[in-house]
Amino acid sequence: MKLTLAICTHNHLPALRTTLASLHDLRLPRAPLDILVIDNASTDGTADWLVQTQWQRPDIPSHLTREPRLGVANARNRALIEAEGDYVIFLDDDETPDVDWLNHLEKVIEDYHPAAIGGRIRALLPGPRPAWLQDELLGFLGELDYGPAGCPLTETSTPIFTGNAAFHRQTVLDMGGFDGTLGRRGATQSGGEDTDLYRRLVGVGKLVRWAPDAVIWHRIEHWKLRRWYFLTLHYHQGHMEGSRQRGSASPGMPPKYVFAQLLRAYWRALRLRLAKGAAHSVRQEMNAAYFSGLVAGWRSRPK
To answer: Under a CB-based contact definition with an 8 Å cutoff, are residues 75 and 12 in contact?
Structure first.
């Protein structure tokens, strides 16, 4: 068995430098391991830095590749194609893994041979936590925690995130990989490519395991600790979903029930803000932003 550690990056060079430096602290698994960095159409000097700088660990073979089609799903699919490992382990370019992270993932692979593994993700905030950032919102900063016990994941409500996940390479390739229409695309803050793949895997009975001891720290940037980030994220997700629901039909008005959902979401957000204050209404405001995006997605023309 071989493992490939894959890091996809787009115009995130300062964060990437920190992540690559943190790999020097990792305790290595017993299985052969290589590192694959996928430059996803970066224009900030990432490609030159990766070529000219000695960032590699001398005891781990390292490779570079470029995916010119913008979009994290495209970059992840490139990783699956180029990887040498039987399992591809994804780490985002703004994360720091625990020193035993790979060993815990390897243990799950050896014990269960799953199609996929999800590990624990902790949000590492850059400063004081805003009063409005309730626990229920941490998941939108990538935090993931399904408890202290390893177990199979079978419900659509328990997706894994590719910031800390391992996939059996051939299984995912046979299923068509990640959906290239989903996920973050340049400066557009959206997601869903990992949740979609997870749901397809469990939908056909593939084994997905939760690995609570495989921990990474997601380093959160200052600008993500603003309300507009959460609202924009949900607007874009709604926009993508509206476009998908419309399908090949011409742009137009969505079904009437969508407008009813939109009005209810705005009313609930306003009512909660008036009753409890702005620190308690963000989640409802995010729902309103989602339905606004859903309507816009129905009405927009395909690009």
So the answer is: no
